[in-house]
Amino acid sequence: MSTGLIIALIVIVAVVAIAAAVLTLRARGPRHGANLKRRFGPEYDRALTRHDGDTEAAERELAQRVELHGDLRARPLEPAERERYEAGWAAAQERFVDSPREAVADADRLLADLAAARGYPDGGQYEEQLAALSVHHAHHVDGYRRVHRVAQARVNGGHEGGAGTEEMREAMVEARALFDELVRPSRHDDGNHRGEPEGHRAGTAGHGRSHTPSFLHRRQAKES
């Protein structure tokens, strides 16, 4: 084989390798780096902390969430379902005055049931449900995480069961932002739940139909 042919083959192989690398980077783009950080917001920072600052590991985890749940199609709620969930949340908020810990447990169960009703993984698969919610509601999913942690600690007798009233109040307020996003009718109720996460598209939460009583914005609840 002549030297010229060998050089030509080397050049061809190099060009093919570069082209493959470029295509791979383009394919990875929507799920990596700045795009992941923009999509996941605070969840990106939590993943980074969980992986001790290892950006590659954190982005690999978040990319896997998008791969598994990015195409999830949310099921619209029937009016009667929506009214039932709104009544349940209002009852949990009212209960918070005298029994904050029980109210947080009610909110935890209600969010799990509501997410499942919208087509997310069943609440019995909490970690998978949370991961799916984080893909589409990254800016508000931590409220669910917080009420679930307190509720489970109460059941298991863990130290988190001793969370103070103020911490539980903050968890309830944050969790209601996720509740509002899940319960309200939206232009995405045709089942199309692709692309940008709903929480990101919708901007800030708090524009749903449910109302947060003023006592959840003040420290008036009693310890239970």
Low-confidence stretches: 25-31, 190-196, 199-209, 219-224
Average pLDDT figure = 80
Q: Based on CA inertia axes, which overall geometry fits?
A: elongated
Number of strand elements: 0
Spatial separation of the terminal alpha carbons: 86 Å
Radius of gyration: 22 Å
Q: What would you call the quaternary organization?
A: single chain
Report the total helices: 10
Largest sheet: none
Structural class: mainly alpha
How many domains? The number is 2
Q: Which percent band covers the strand fraction?
A: under 5%
Spell out the helices and strands N to C: HHHHHHHHHH
- Helix content bin: 55-70%
Structural summary, described in words:
The protein is an all-alpha fold. The chain folds into 2 domains: 1-27; 79-217, no CATH class. Helices cover 64% and strands 0% of the residues. The protein has 10 helices and no strands. It has helices at 3-28, 33-40, 42-50, 55-69, 79-95, 100-117, 126-136, 141-156, 165-183, 198-202. Helix 3 (42-50) crosses helix 4 (55-69), helix 6 packs across helix 8 and helix 6 runs parallel beside helix 9 (165-183). Mean pLDDT is 80; it is low at 25-31, 190-196, 199-209 and 219-224. This is Secreted protein. The chain crosses the membrane at residues 6-25. Residues 185-224 are annotated as: Disordered. Keywords: Membrane, Transmembrane, Transmembrane helix. Residues 185-201 have a biased composition (Basic and acidic residues).
